[in-house]
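Hi F.,

I've been meaning to write this up properly since the lab meeting, where we talked about keeping a consistent format for the predictions we share between groups. The idea is simple: the sequence comes first, exactly as it goes in, then the structure tokens exactly as they come out, then a line or two of notes. No screenshots and no reformatting. I'm using this chain as the first example so we have something concrete to point to.
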Amino acid sequence: MSAPAYAPVPSAPAPAGASGGPTAAQLLDFALRTAADPEVVASLPLDPGGRTWIRLDGPGGSEAWLIGWPPGTGTGWHDHAESRGAFATARGVLTEHSLAVRLPAQGWQSLRLTTGVDRTRGLAAGTGRAFAEHHVHEVLNASAAEHAVSVHAYYPPLPLIRRYSRNGPVLTLEHVERPADWQ
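Output, unedited:
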């Protein structure tokens, strides 16, 4: 049985105040301002062997994180379920690979993506990205030598993270993480 195909569909951001809390644009503003604060960025202990993170106070009840990325590390494909979010690079360059398609929130294990849904963007220090709910992406530090640092914010606070594997055009849901898995 082959996976159902999903073609590009514009993903509209959540309307301001639609579900309360900060908008994706407000989360991005927070992430950019925080990433520009040298004292906050310097507070993160960096580990050459793996990603490090500390929890921050996000705006309006949001969840926020300062994350360190050693060279060559990344998140793998994932989404943040019903949370909208934003991230900004404070140091180094991060690469985001994302899908320009709105996936069903549940009821599937494997999907066949059509051509034209892949997007890639580089985010150097001082730049960021906001996204709507169910945004599927992976973020990585492709540098062979430089540590990267970034600020991330989500609202509502993350109820779960869905992890995916990717084999060509086929995206497969592998597992679901709950807050206890990363806090």
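Notes:
Residues 19-181 form a domain with the Jelly Rolls fold (CATH 2.60.120.10).
The chain has a mean pLDDT of 89.

If this format works for you, I'll send the rest the same way.

G.
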